[in-house]
């Protein structure tokens, strides 16, 4: 008879093992068996909880997105004005919890998977819309009609720095955030 309450613990262990294994491999080139072994359980149990590798990976990305969302919400607490909020949003993207090697590898894999797995594509679009909306809301009072264009550029810079980090670029989160913030300030202050 299964232990009551053990399923959430095992699911969480599988999600964390998935993130770790993808980080080690640098891609989705991992097996459910590897993930299950890392989590200390059988492959059959992993399949029982998630059904397959795509579902385990989607759960891992939901976990990463949940942590990311919480870090952005936490960063925004106490923000004083749109410029302060923008800085906090950008810095939250590069916090150590969000800019770890294994999380960066998971993001890269997520972008690739979004092209072939509809649910991954949907999750990616939700993330992109939310980031764009948060940026746009705070950019409108600072740069008016150019806010959408500036939000697109900032989003692309964030994605680009993740991509470079995933491909072996030596950049830390503080430097990455500083680079985005420097470009953002220039775009905000630029004359239309």
User: How many separate domains make up the residues?
Assistant: 1
Which CATH architecture?
Orthogonal Bundle
β-strand number: 0
Unreliable segments (pLDDT under 50, ≥5 consecutive)?
A: none
| Shape category | elongated
CATH topology: Tetracycline Repressor, domain 2
- Distinct helical segment count: 9
Average pLDDT value? 90
How much helix is in the residues? over 70%
Tell me the structural class: mainly alpha
What's the SSE blueprint?
Layout: H1 6-25, H2 32-39, H3 43-50, H4 53-76, H5 82-93, H6 101-113, H7 118-143, H8 147-166, H9 173-189
Helix pairs in contact: 1-2, 1-4, 1-6, 2-3, 4-5, 4-6, 4-7, 5-7, 5-9, 6-8, 7-8, 8-9
Model description:
The chain is mainly α and 192 residues long. It has one domain: Tetracycline Repressor, domain 2, CATH 1.10.357.10. It is built from nine helices and no strands. It has helices at residues 6-25, 32-39, 43-50, 53-76, 82-93, 101-113, 118-143, 147-166, 173-189. Helix 7 (118-143) packs across helix 8 and helix 8 (147-166) runs antiparallel to helix 9 (173-189). The protein is elongated. The model has no long low-confidence stretch (mean pLDDT 90).
């Amino acid at each position: 008879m299964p232990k009551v309450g053990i399923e959430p613990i095992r699911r969480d262990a599988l999600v964390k093992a998935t993130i770790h294994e993808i980080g080690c491999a640098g891609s989705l080139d991992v097996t459910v068996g590897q993930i299950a072994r890392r989590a200390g359980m059988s492959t059959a149990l992993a399949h029982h909880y998630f059904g397959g590798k795509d579902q385990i990976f989607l759960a891992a990305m939901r976990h990463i997105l949940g942590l990311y969302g919480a870090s952005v919400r936490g960063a925004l607490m106490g923000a004083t004005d749109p410029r302060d909020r923008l800085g906090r949003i950008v810095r939250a993207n590069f916090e150590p919890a969000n800019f770890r090697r294994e999380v960066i590898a998971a993001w890269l894999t997520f972008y690739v998977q979004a092209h072939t797995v509809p649910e991954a594509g949907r999750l990616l679009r939700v993330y992109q819309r939310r980031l764009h909306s948060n940026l746009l809301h705070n950019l409108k009072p600072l740069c008016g009609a150019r806010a959408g264009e500036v939000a697109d550029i900032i989003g692309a810079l964030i994605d680009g720095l993740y991509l470079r980090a995933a491909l072996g670029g030596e950049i830390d989160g503080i430097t990455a955030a500083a680079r985005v913030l420097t470009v953002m300030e220039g775009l905000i202050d630029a004359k239309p």
